[in-house]
Amino acid sequence: MIENAVAAISGVSLALGCLLMLSGALGLLRFPDFYTRMHAAGITDTLASFLIICGLMPMAGWSLALAKLGMILLFIFFTGPTASHALARAAQLGRPALAVDGQVDAGVVEEVGSAAVEVEPDSGRI
Amino acid sequence: MLIATTVALLVVMCMALARALLGPTIYDRILALNMFGTKTVLLISVICFLFGRPEFLDVALVYSLINFVSVIGVLRYFEYDAAVRERAEHD
């Protein structure tokens, strides 16, 4: 009875984790703008990782592996938002360099910091 | 089920690499690498259960530490780069 309960829980959460991860990665590719892509990447980094590691936990049972998985989960839980915040802040600081996001995808401003595009930064902000 | 998770993880890692190559700006590339790093951590954990070797989890833990530090390091470099240029423009 316990075995198939464990298998059921881990199976369902692993499947959900994979589904969310694939949808997040698809969003990462298809979204038009950097900040929307960050949202898509955020989903896979936090929720999908949480579901997959929670899916692995019943397999480990009451052992050291369970403690290590908990450590990994805790660490991803803390570093995910911090890294996203640092990334968004750096992108925001480099805002004049990025110029208008719509234009960026047209490859007008390729490398960071080229002041070639004389566009006031707030035009075209969604 | 573990094999399906491994395949899904590998597909997502390829997508992240595609975004890293395509990404128009530097920040897209850093975002893709950050995502690639966390997926590597998950892949190591899943493989650890696939092969039944619990010591791989230490590798996954250390890898997530390194991934976080490297992302912050790269961002610190670009943030400083942009700030210096901004100050140069205003002076």
TrEMBL record, chain A:
Keyword Transmembrane helix: yes
Keyword list, A-Z: Membrane, Transmembrane, Transmembrane helix
Gene Ontology MF terms: sodium:proton antiporter activity
Keyword Transmembrane in record: yes
InterPro entries according to UniProt: PhaG_MnhG_YufB
Transmembrane segments: 6-29, 41-60
Protein's UniProt name: Multicomponent Na+:H+ antiporter subunit G
TrEMBL record, chain B:
Pfam family, one: MrpF_PhaF
InterPro entries, sorted: MrpF/PhaF-like (IPR007208)
Keyword Flavoprotein in record: no
Localization, UniProt: Cell membrane
Superkingdom classification of source: Bacteria
GO cellular component: plasma membrane
Topology within the bilayer: Multi-pass membrane protein
Keyword Protein transport among UniProt keywords: no
MF term (GO), any: sodium:proton antiporter activity
Keywords, sorted A to Z: Cell membrane, Membrane, Transmembrane, Transmembrane helix, Transport
Segments passing through the bilayer: 30-52, 59-78
Family, per entry: Belongs to the CPA3 antiporters (TC 2.A.63) subunit F family.
Name of the protein in question: Multicomponent Na+:H+ antiporter subunit F
